[in-house]
Structures are given as structure tokens and as C-alpha cells.
Amino acid sequence: MSHSIPPSDDPPTRHPPDAAVCPPADLRREMACRICRRILNTYFDATGRLRHLHPAARTSYDHDPDPVPSAEVAGVARSCDFCSDRYPVFRLDSGPVQALALGEDDSSVHDFGTTWSACITCTLLAQSSKSEALTQRAVTRMEWADPTIAAEAVRAIHVGVVGTLRPGRTLLTDVHWPHTPVTATALPKVRDRLTALLTGPDRMDLLKVRQRRDIAASLQGGRLFAVDDEFTDLACTAATDLPATVLDVEDLPAPHGLLLWANPVVGGVCAASWASTDQGIRIVSYRGVGGSAGVADGLAVQALREQVGWLIPVSHRLLVHGEAITCVDGALAVLAATWLLIAQRTGETVSVAADRSIRKAYARTRRPAPEVRLVRIRGRQATGSRETRRGEAREPQAQRRWISGYWRSQPHGPGRALRKDVYVFAYLRGPADAPIAASTTVRVLAAERRRPKLQ
């Protein structure tokens, strides 16, 4: 539920007396506007009817609220309930907070509930009992004059929230941040911060405490994979036509691991971790937080990195033995395609050293130096024109094309008189700077799945 006050000093707008009366059970239900996806405020008008109001904003809305339960709105647009920042991080809990608005002819009671979405800066201010600093931040960001009726009302509400704030906080997992690029060499630090988040005191609605501990343990013992931008595009293309595919541990690049794509895939997901268990494969998807476009304050970015990190879990699934993944499974389909392409040697995996500062930090705590595996497309890359059998120069290829894997009878032994079957893995043919022909991607993926496994 959003709780910011409208920026106007005017009394609340009257509503027609025949408006439907909402049952008391709807009072604590979080509502969003169907049109703009913003979380709505609630209040009682003079007749005792429950109404909904858009949260405060610097500009006016061009439509009336169209309230529906927020669970029915895809991509709900949250904002900080204290300063209207577009990227809240935590949900704080307080005692019930209400405000009485008196007009010339009527009055209304605004019910702000007990839950508050907060950006990282407002979270720290509220948990430090700095209610006046909260108010000044809100007044500055909303460009209100102070004192005014609106500013004084916000000040009173902030005092009420801070005075009844309950211990702890809950991580918000449905906020879509701008993409946060992470280098492969920084991945060990990203993993350590994620492990600390999972084992820390902050609450998460998505995962239970025991699940969080198990996932953190698998992260610490798992391998790290960073997928470059070209291989990410390849996996996304392959996932769009992925047939029903049943995976087992042999199809995974490692029993436990954390994989980071160079760019977000379906639903803004940019990373995934997995753990092999007796029940199946436990998979968690993550979005990035703290993109430069989302947090302009350097101190806020530092606080976000220290207290949250770079990744937040957004979905969790146990893939039981024999369960198939298909192209409709979103980011999970991209993960499956990535695994298969790695297993089929369409990519090459090379080790890269972590950042020097990370290696030093590991050495100080007597931990072995972390290793990151960079996944990129392998190929036989031609850089110019080639000659035909008649000695004529061929035109440079406009696209790179996948050459499907195949068995080749390889001569060997004395005088190369003996033969043995060698499997040639799929590879890209064409200039390194040419685009990949997408039409060949899925065909290669299917062909590689059909090949017999090497003994």
C-alpha cells in the first residue's frame, strides 16, 4: 500500500453518495491503479465509504484511480512512500497510521495502514529515528514549500511512522531496476554479497529461512559462470523455440553454480543459481539492483551495495526429476538453453582471474582464490575473403552461420592408416564481426541433442 499524501492543500474531493461501500476486509488489501499501475492510497470519506487516491507526484495524473488488487497488476509500479523515489528496496512495518482531513463542509479519514515501501536512503533514516530528515527529503524531492499544510501533514505522518516502527524489514522483489552491468571479474564479490543477503536478518516473502540457508550453501560451493553478450543473445534466440526438454545433472555445467548473463533476459532476470538435490534441481532467478539510472546519490549506492548487494531473488522453482522445460518458461527456458549450449560445446569456457582487490580480500581470510568461468561463443572465424578452387576471391560472408556437429572418420596411427570416429562439435563459420544468422541457432541446438553421447 502506498501512503504518500497528495501535494495539494485543498480538502479531499467529494464523491457521489451512491458509491459502493467496500467491506472491511478490503481495507488492508493493497490496491493498484489498473491504468498507471501505481499503488493507491486509501481513505474514508464523510459517509464512511472507502475511497482510493493516487500517491503524491510532481505532476498531476490524467485519469482517475481505477483500483484493482495489486496482485492482479503485472509489473506494479511501486515508489518510496516517504519521498516518492521510483526504486524502493525494503518494506517497513509500523503501527496503524491515520490522518483526519477537515474541509469546510465535510471531512475524511486517510488510512495509511501499517506497511511502507522505502528506498535505501529513507530506510536508513527511518530506522535511525530521523523523522525530520525524512520530511526534509520528501519536501525537497516533491518541490513543496515548507511550511504548508501538505508539508506539515507529511511531517506528522513521518513522526507517527518512526515512533511506531517495528523491528526488521522485508526485501521488495517486484521492483524493476535499470540494468546493472557486472563484470566477470567482480562475480566472486557479487556472490559473497548475495550469500550474506540470504543468510542475513532481512525478511524475504519469496524464500523460507531454511531454503535461504540451503541456497547460500550451494552458492558458496558452486562454480561461477559469466556469459558474454553474444552468447546471451544466442541463448535467448534458442529459448524461443526450445522443445520440451528434460534435464538431469549430466546436462548442467556444474552440480551447483551461479550464472550471470551479460544482459537481462526474460522479465529483467540477469542471473540464476542452481543446486542439485535429491528431489531435483532447485533454481533461483535474480534481477539486478542499484543501476546508475536508479540511484543518483553515491552514498546511497554504497549503502545499497553494503546492505543488499547487486542481485535480489525474484523467483524460485524446484525442477523435479523428469519435469520438462519448454519455451513458455521464460527465463528458465533461457537458462536451459544456456546449459545445453555449454554442454554441446557451442561455447568455450575460459577461466578469468577475479579483480585484484577481491583476490586480496580472499587471501586475508585464507580462502582459496576464486575462479570465474567466462562463457563465449567458439568458432572458426574468418577475417577476410577466401579463394575458390579456381583461385578466385570469394566475397566476405555477410553473416556467421552455425555448422552443426558431425562425426568424422579421423586417420591416425602409423602412416595414418588407421581410422577412428571423432565428433566435431558445432561451431560458427564466418567473420568475427558479422552478425549470427538466427535461423541456424535452434536447428543446431536440436541436432546436438540428438547426437549420441561420447563414451
Provide keyphrases for this structure.
single chain, about 450 residues, alpha+beta, seven-stranded mixed sheet, four-stranded antiparallel sheet, 24 strands, about 25% helix, disordered N terminus, disordered C terminus
Strand order of the largest sheet: 16-15-14-13-11-19-18
Assembly annotation? single chain
Shape: elongated
Return the average pLDDT rounded to an integer: 78
Distance between the termini: 59 Å
Largest sheet: 7 strands, mixed
The amount of beta strand, in percent, is 25-35%
Rounded Rg: 28 Å
Individual helix count: 10
What's the total number of strands?
A: 24
Helix/strand class: alpha+beta
Ranges where pLDDT stays below 50 over 5 or more residues in a row are 1-25, 380-389, 440-455
Give the proportion of residues in helices. 25-40%
Description:
The chain has 455 residues and is an alpha+beta fold. 25% of the residues lie in helices and 25% in strands. Helix 2 (131-142) packs antiparallel against helix 3 and helix 4 (187-199) packs antiparallel against helix 5. The N and C termini lie far apart (59 Å).
SSE arrangement:
Elements lengths: L30 E3 L7 E4 L5 E4 L13 E3 L20 E4 L4 E5 L4 E5 L3 E4 L1 H8 L3 H12 L6 H15 L6 E2 L15 H13 L3 E2 L4 H13 L1 E5 L1 H11 L5 E2 L9 E6 L9 E6 L3 E9 L9 H10 L3 E10 L3 E2 L5 H13 L3 E7 L2 H9 L6 E7 L1 E3 L19 E3 L2 E7 L5 E7 L2 E4 L10 H10 L5
Parallel strand pairs: 9-10, 11-13, 11-19, 20-24
Antiparallel strand pairs: 1-4, 2-3, 2-7, 5-8, 5-9, 6-7, 12-17, 13-14, 14-15, 15-16, 18-19, 21-24, 22-23
Helix pairs in contact: 2-3, 4-5, 6-8
